[in-house]
Amino acid sequence: MSEPLRIALAGLGTVGAGVIRLIEANADLIARRAGREIRIVAVSARNRGKDRGVDLSAYAWEDDMVILGEREDVDVVVELVGGADGPALALARTTFEAGKALVTANKAMVAHHGLELAAKAEAAKCAFKFEAAVAGGIPVIKGLKEGAAANAIERVYGILNGTCNYILSTMEDTGRDFADVLAEAQARGYAEADPTFDIDGIDAAHKLAILSSIAFGTAIDFASVRATGIRRVLAADIAQADALGYYIRLIGMAEPETDASGSRRLFQRIHPHLVHRDHPLAHVDGATNAVVAEGNFVGRLLFQGAGAGDGPTASAVVADLIDIARGDVGAPFSIPVGELDTAPAADSGHRTGKAYIRFSVADRPGVLAEITAAMRDAGVSIESLIQKGRAEAGSDEPVLVAMVTHEGPESAIAHALELLEGSESLAEPPLVMPLIGE
Amino acid sequence: MSEPLRIALAGLGTVGAGVIRLIEANADLIARRAGREIRIVAVSARNRGKDRGVDLSAYAWEDDMVILGEREDVDVVVELVGGADGPALALARTTFEAGKALVTANKAMVAHHGLELAAKAEAAKCAFKFEAAVAGGIPVIKGLKEGAAANAIERVYGILNGTCNYILSTMEDTGRDFADVLAEAQARGYAEADPTFDIDGIDAAHKLAILSSIAFGTAIDFASVRATGIRRVLAADIAQADALGYYIRLIGMAEPETDASGSRRLFQRIHPHLVHRDHPLAHVDGATNAVVAEGNFVGRLLFQGAGAGDGPTASAVVADLIDIARGDVGAPFSIPVGELDTAPAADSGHRTGKAYIRFSVADRPGVLAEITAAMRDAGVSIESLIQKGRAEAGSDEPVLVAMVTHEGPESAIAHALELLEGSESLAEPPLVMPLIGE
Predict the structure, then answer these.
(1) Taking CA atoms, which of A8, A88, A285, B150 is between 20 and 30 Å from A357?
(2) Who wins on pLDDT, A295 or B260?
(3) At residue A193, does pLDDT exceed 90?
(4) Which chain B residues touch A285 with a CB distance below 8 Å?
(5) Does the structure show a pLDDT above 90 at A363?
(6) What's the rounded mean pLDDT across residues B288-298?
(7) Is A326 close to B322, i.e. CB distance below 8 A?
(8) Is the pLDDT of residue A305 over 60?
């Protein structure tokens, strides 16, 4: 058996402690599969004294985590600190400058600085791996880079945020409202005290930007991801979707398009969608993640599993380490950074499909006529229309009106909503959610 | 860019032609991802003159496919001939003896001769890859060998035969009987003229034996897979399962167990199961395949996609070629053949769970009492019992009696059926199907 692969671990939160537990618990089988021992030699975290339930006494300690990247007794640095910039980024740069490999679970850093870091890694002929940054324990980066490598990927989409999926599927199961379920999720530790990154779709956007770069061979472009989260989804929307045979899921969707001038553009969006009950994503419940990739020969591939948590994330981190131990120093984004295409952001207006539109309207005569006239004038064809929850006489409560459109361009819907903008009939801006069929 | 990877293709059926089409259609992106061109240089098949819809004029032709393994201008042989022995096996041996890599979609050959061939490949330091042999286009071998490599895999199971799944899900959708749906599937080309390998579970058993070797690090042991197919599943069973909230699927299940003496044993079985509607495998319809792997850190991973067809199978073959082009010469079964454990077959009687049992009985007084007494005497606890389709007075038609047991050992059910063996009340042997919960 070869020399051990020597690891330094930066960050000892739940995932860091999970990586230590995994490497200890599965040491024998990891050595058999990797052909060599994977050995932690040094660690660093903010607070040395904190009890993490793992014994750190065998490992060297560095107060300054950036030093880990310079230690001569280290082959690979595992970065589990988080944050797009700051110490994590400093450590990543130092690691490649010192000619060592880096494994990270840091989706924000990869989404913002992945190209710079990949260029550094390639120049140093070092591995740079981040399977744990997307969809937790699911080997979806490997699935795209290697498993589906023979295909032109036509579309990649999925459920990329476990917190949102937990909230939506709990709303679905219980009929409760968003705010109520979010509060409970926070109390139980399923959602952060500041849940913005999760529920506004930023976390999913980081992951989607990474996936689409690998799937389409385009330079990572986080800034172009349009992200809308799940704050505005109502229990009534979920009930309405259910009656139509759909489940509401926060979907990250990326797809290359060709614009009128023949140029390649990239569409990337995080948005709640209505997913048909016969589509495999409809049955992804709780904190589970799932990613669909559609290839020009393989057709539809689905990868599903735990999207977060110390065990699943540690599984992905150590899978990367095993790949490195086996000698894999492939291009971080599948093809070398210098050969990645740049594709400007696509305009969502070019997209066509069915959509669910929910209005919150004043309960008075003529409102429906006003809405349907705007739809007609914008060329939106309505497949079904449901007026829900007529308020009691004299009440000021707005009434919900939901509709499903026929297949048509998203630009027509946007135009209809422009026509309705400023209308006194609307209590708030309408919520539009695209439909995903079987 | 490096030198091209030079390929010889043995077998030009639908998959062989698919590989040619894929390599032509996606040549540029394959070269970008692999870092070098993948170039077909020679081909062989039984009939040179046959029109396959692809132009073979650029490739050298060999009448004797075994010669492909000896050609000096070839780096990798792709074997798509099929058959556990015969020319495919001769070609595989010749290829490794000549120090070349082999990629194959031949599940029968890998199930029967995989260890011998892997030992030859390892001795020659050549790649031996067979992603296409299991679950068509789904990168599940890669998922287990690499994606889940950090985990002790506790169980691997799934839907491994598209023909059976097509038949079962069509029976489900239409209420028609097995023989009727099979005949239609044959007419449409979804089932072979001789469907035995598919519907009796042999094809799935080949795939399961390969998966369990990789998942558990055990020497491949096809002979120990107990295979029962779907011939005996009735439309009435499917209706009954549906009423209970389950779907019937042909499941391949492999799981290491520890016997009374502390030895590791391996359970491998192909059998129809009742799958709870909240389990992701319940919604796998048509010719789709899906595999679940449960790891001790990652939890449940699901891989789903097209299990057969020229495009998906070609996708898996070319993914293997891209791995080889990138320099991957890992152990074919994840750890070297000499280090694989041998685990004797586990006795299914040690397993516990709920089960569905369907009896076909004479319609006369006392039959139910006889069955329930046997269950009681064997210690089988009945959760629910349904007597279906009482025949008309005077009819000789048997009546179906179905039951679901409480959680209990499979050995108790086997004992109960032994007690009933030879009973004149039973028109045919009962059909037992284990339940898989959420």
Answers:
(1) A285
(2) A295
(3) no
(4) 278
(5) no
(6) 98
(7) no
(8) yes
Do B50 and B116 have their domain in common?
yes
ipTM: 0.96
Interface touch A25/B296, C-beta < 8 Å: yes
Which residues on chain A are in Cβ contact (under 8 Å) with B32?
217, 335, 339
Task: Compare all CA atoms of chain A with the CA of B148 and give the residue at the minimum distance.
Answer: A319
Amino acid at B182: L
Note the residue count of chain A. Answer: 438
Residues A125 and A148 in one domain: no
The answer to whether the CB atoms of A301 and B148 lie below 8 A apart is: no
What is the count of residue pairs from A and B with beta carbons less than 8 Å apart?
198
pLDDT given at position B192: 85
C-alpha distance from residue B100 to each of A250, B122, B420, B421 (Å)? 48, 11, 57, 55
Question: What is the structure's pLDDT at B391?
Answer: 55
Shortest CA distance to B436 belongs to which of B364, B369, B354? B354
Mutation choice for A interface testing from B297, B321, B334, B339 by most A CBs within 10 A: B297
Residue in chain B closest to A297 (alpha carbons) equals B311
Q: What is the pLDDT of residue B365?
A: 85
Q: Identify the closest residue of chain A to B296 by CA–CA distance.
A: A311
Instruction: Name which of B298, B414, B393 is nearest B351 in CA terms.
Output: B414
Q: Please name the member of B131, B290, B339 whose beta carbon is closest to the beta carbon of A32.
A: B339
Domain boundary among B306, B323, B341: B306
Structure tokens at B159: 């839907």
Are A316 and B298 inside 8 Å of each other by CB?
A: yes
A76 closest CA partner among A325, A276, A290: A325
Instruction: Give how far the C-alpha of residue A238 lies from the chain's centroid of Cα atoms, to the nearest Å.
Output: 22
Mean pLDDT of A137-150: 98
- Write the CATH number for A261: 3.30.360.10
- Find the mean pLDDT for residues B312-323: 98
Nearest CA of chain A to the CA of B27: how many Å? 9
User: Mean pLDDT across the stretch B261-288?
Assistant: 94
Q: Is residue B316 part of a domain?
A: no
Residue of A276, A298, A324 for testing the chain B interface, max B β-carbons within 10 Å: A298
In contact, A164 and A250? CB cutoff 8 Å: yes
C-beta separation of A310 from A15 below 8 A: yes
Enter the tokens of residue B73.
């201008």
Asked whether the beta carbons of B125 and B101 are under 8 A apart, the reply is: no
Query: Total domain count for chain B?
Result: 3
Q: What is the CATH number of the domain that holds A35?
A: 3.40.50.720
**Do B369 and B267 sit in the same domain of this protein?**
no
Asked whether the whole model's pTM tops 0.90, one would answer yes
Q: Helix A162-174 crosses helix A178-187 at what angle (to 10 degrees)?
A: 120
Catalytically active residues of A, by annotation: 207
**pLDDT higher than threshold 90 for residue A365:** no
Cα distance between residue B7 and residue B95, in whole Å = 12
- Looking at residue A260, its pLDDT comes to 84
Residue B79 belongs to what domain range?
5-133
Nearest-Cα distance to chain A for B386, in Å, is 29
| Pick from B18, B139, B316: CB nearest A143 | B139
Q: Is the pLDDT of residue A388 over 90?
A: no
Which of B133, B167, B189 is at the close of a domain? B133
